[in-house]
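Minutes, project check-in

Agenda point 3 was the complex the collaborators sent over. CS summarized: two entities, 642 residues total, and the question is how they sit relative to each other. Sequences were read into the notes so everyone works from the same version.
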Amino acid sequence: MSNIRAAIIGYGNLGKSVEKVIAAQPDIDLVGVFSRRDKLDTEARVIPVADVEKHVDDIDVLYMCLGSATDIPEQAANLAKLYNTVDTYDNHNEIPRHRAEMDAAAKESGHVAVISTGWDPGMFSLNRTYASAVVPEYEQHTFWGPGLSQGHSDALRRIDGVKKAVQYTIPAEDALDKARRGEGQDITGKNAHLRQCWIVTEEGASQEDIENTIRTMPDYFVGYEVEVHFISEAEFDAEHTGMPHGGHVVTAGKIGETNHLIEYTLKLDRNPDFTAGVMVAYGRAAHRLAQAGETGARTVLEIAPYLIHPLGLDELISRDV
Amino acid sequence: MSNIRAAIIGYGNLGKSVEKVIAAQPDIDLVGVFSRRDKLDTEARVIPVADVEKHVDDIDVLYMCLGSATDIPEQAANLAKLYNTVDTYDNHNEIPRHRAEMDAAAKESGHVAVISTGWDPGMFSLNRTYASAVVPEYEQHTFWGPGLSQGHSDALRRIDGVKKAVQYTIPAEDALDKARRGEGQDITGKNAHLRQCWIVTEEGASQEDIENTIRTMPDYFVGYEVEVHFISEAEFDAEHTGMPHGGHVVTAGKIGETNHLIEYTLKLDRNPDFTAGVMVAYGRAAHRLAQAGETGARTVLEIAPYLIHPLGLDELISRDV
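CS then shared the predicted structure for the full assembly.
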């Protein structure tokens, strides 16, 4: 069987991670990276985005490493008319709308579009569905972190006198314990997570003023347990330039009078790498479903697990079931 | 949409748990329990096993709550010729053979047979496959327990002077930690678990002799870390008559130079209840796949997650993805 021929569009953190993950696959080859730029820091072939329609016969699956804010809403449906696609669209409220648009585009052109892969949405979505299907009564909570929050780090960096800053979101241990015991009725987004800030100040800036600005910032920090740490630039550069993330899906189930805890945990060194790992695996499903004559959009809930694995079904059954 | 009409065959611990789980489902009704006995301790309709061929028009899915040692090998394929079925066949080495037999029987008669559901095989199988699909390099270990081991408890009860006994299998903390760090190359079944025995002796029996017999019992205890606790019958009856179980699937993955831990944990008050929870959910998939015109055997790896959930796909996508 010949390898799956893959391409990437978008070459930020996620695109670079997808390139790295594809390089480690036995059954997927990278044809090239579509980019607006002439030169990218890659050994891969760089193809001008303007030529995106010219490669429909050379590419089995297109990994759309595009942002959810504007790129995917603007470009994804048109790309799904040309290629089988995989995306990581993560605007949870808008996923049904995105699915409908991608479904129409992919069906019209005879392609498969796998949407909203990654880990949340993605692996966490799967675990929410599996866990709630197998226990008739349950309480289910998702916790995020310890992990870097891009939006909150940006908010810190906009404060006067802040030179560098990161914000980690960390699940509150007491909330986690309550969720595991099925006593998490009073858990909210705010009391389930604490917000840890690591800050390097500009020379002469007032740490007191900065801390006060943080603690009184509505939406972002008010109502949360907040930790503020001021550190040296050297410490910051050594310890706080990674992109760790992860979290837990905790389901406390009841069957009659018996209790059953189902917990799925991720601890990720580098968020875009793991997101890319999931995305690349679902590219197999996009290709295989299209090969089998299926068309339209699919979420991870609609795809049989074996379709994402490099091993064949018989080998998987012997090994994993 | 009318409810799924279900029946149970086999009314031991698992059959009773399946009855309890079905009673809590919004979309599944129990038609009856097939049994060799005239009277069962149930409010459900009891149907003689001899009449099993007479109800093919009244039953959408048959939950086969039968043992893997002899009942399933002897009876399952014949039942799959009559009904859509779900089983919990757990003889891992023989699952490919079982799948082939069930596939032939179900295809011949136009039914769907979902095989080897439960949690291992079952939910653990799913997690082994998902986790190993999304990281290109990995080390993966399955730990069982803390949980009651039926076979080991039976072995203890056969020792002279033992009145009552249970054996819990417990994951060794140091092995779990190694697995989480991706340093579990030397983990074996023996050093990954400790065996904890709780024993009530007959009057006049020698605890020393019993403990010695345990510690020198080949296969069952030799080579394991073993704890032996002698307790009163009152304590035994109060603390050790449950059927707790659970475990972990730990996958330490690598993407380039970054590390990614994926861990799935179950803590189950009562093993047959949770097994039944998974089994009942997969009954939905058996019925839905058959309604869609599919036939043959399916493992959990071959079934799209949404097919096992009581909620419809659109609602699941809005809620869980």
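Noted in discussion: Chain A has two domains: 2-118+270-318, 124-266.
Follow-up: revisit at the next meeting once the mutant set is ready.
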